[in-house]
Amino acid sequence: MPLVKQELQRVFNYKKEKLQDPNPALSPAEVLDHYSDTYPELVNATMTGPDIKDDKASFEFVVKFKEKG
């Protein structure tokens, strides 16, 4: 039985939103940079993942805020 190469669809999650993959040729870090134009708080975000489920690779953008004081 031959092996079949299958591309996983990438999904990017921020808060409770699912963000579309703007370009599959971009690395996940470049996608984070791309979305930092729309969501400025992503400039200091970290990324977790991929979590693979149902032929999808899911990445999570996580913003950690520090409080002054």
Question: Topology of this protein?
Answer:
Blueprint: E1 9-14, E2 17-19, H1 28-35, E3 46-53, E4 56-62
Parallel strand pairs: 1-4
Antiparallel strand pairs: 1-2, 3-4
The N- to C-terminal Cα distance equals 63 Å
Give the helices and strands as they follow along the chain: EEHEE
Overall shape: elongated
Total beta strands: 4
Pick out the low-confidence regions: none
Task: Describe the protein.
The structure is a single chain. With 69 residues, the chain is mainly beta. 12% of the residues lie in helices and 35% in strands. The chain has 1 helix and 4 strands. It has one helix spanning 28-35; strands spanning 9-14, 17-19, 46-53, 56-62. A 4-stranded mixed β-sheet has the order 2-1-4-3, covered by helices on one side. Strand 3 and strand 4 (56-62) form a beta hairpin. It starts with 8 loop residues before the first strand and ends in a 7-residue tail after the last strand.
Based on the model shown, name its key terms.
69 residues, mainly beta, 4-stranded mixed beta sheet, 1 helix, 4 strands, elongated
Summarize the structure.
The chain is mainly β. The chain contains 1 helix and 4 strands.
